[in-house]
Amino acid sequence: MTLKLGVAAVLRTLRSGQRLTIESVNDATSRQYLTQLEQAKSSISLEKLQAISTALGMSPLTFIALTLSVTGEESAQTLLKTAQGELDEFEKAGGVQALQHQFSQGAVASRRPGRPVDQDRLNSVLRCKAEGLTQSATAQKLGISKQTVHELWKREVGL
């Protein structure tokens, strides 16, 4: 079963279980869009998921767990227990603090263009720099290109 079908089934079940008409959930989104969702003809965005699930008196997380349980082989409870374990590991690994660094003044923090820097390589280059090696000697010692050393030479740890 696809996720579209799962969303349709959960939406229909919740709405009919509460004896709600499409019009009564109309504050969350348009009647046409709700109909398309219930017929599995449209995908749902996170913003719409939040609005619709709130209109149905349910958290978006519960709605997603129900949808995944319908489309997969695990119960909503099992999925939520797995999610709790993953959240615990994420927090233990410092993920919450790292997540906070992704935002600045209510927007996504800016970052350097291109792919992320290999922190181990950056640290190695900066150690060679601190030891007084030249860029050329650093490239030779680490077995990386002079251009890469040149780019990393100007950086600081964590940038």
Could you describe the 3D structure shown?
Pfam families: HTH_23, HTH_3. This is Helix-turn-helix transcriptional regulator. InterPro entries: Cro/C1-type_HTH (IPR001387), Lambda_DNA-bd_dom_sf (IPR010982). The protein has about 160 residues and is mostly helical. Among the domains are: about 70 residues, 434 Repressor (Amino-terminal Domain) (Orthogonal Bundle); about 35 residues, no CATH class. It is built from nine helices and two strands; from the N terminus they run ααααααββααα. It has a two-stranded antiparallel sheet. Helix 4 packs across helix 5. It is elongated and about 75 Å long. The chain starts with a helix and ends in a 6-residue tail after the last helix. The model has no long low-confidence stretch (mean pLDDT about 90).
Order of helices and strands: HHHHHHEEHHH
Question: How far is it from the N-terminal to the C-terminal residue, by CA?
Answer: 43 Å
Order of the strands making up the biggest sheet: 1-2
Count helical runs: 9
Under CATH, the topology of the domain at 3-76 can be stated as: 434 Repressor (Amino-terminal Domain)
Shape: elongated
Largest sheet: 2 strands, antiparallel
Residues in helix, %: 55-70%
**CATH secondary-structure class of the domain at 3-76:** Mainly Alpha
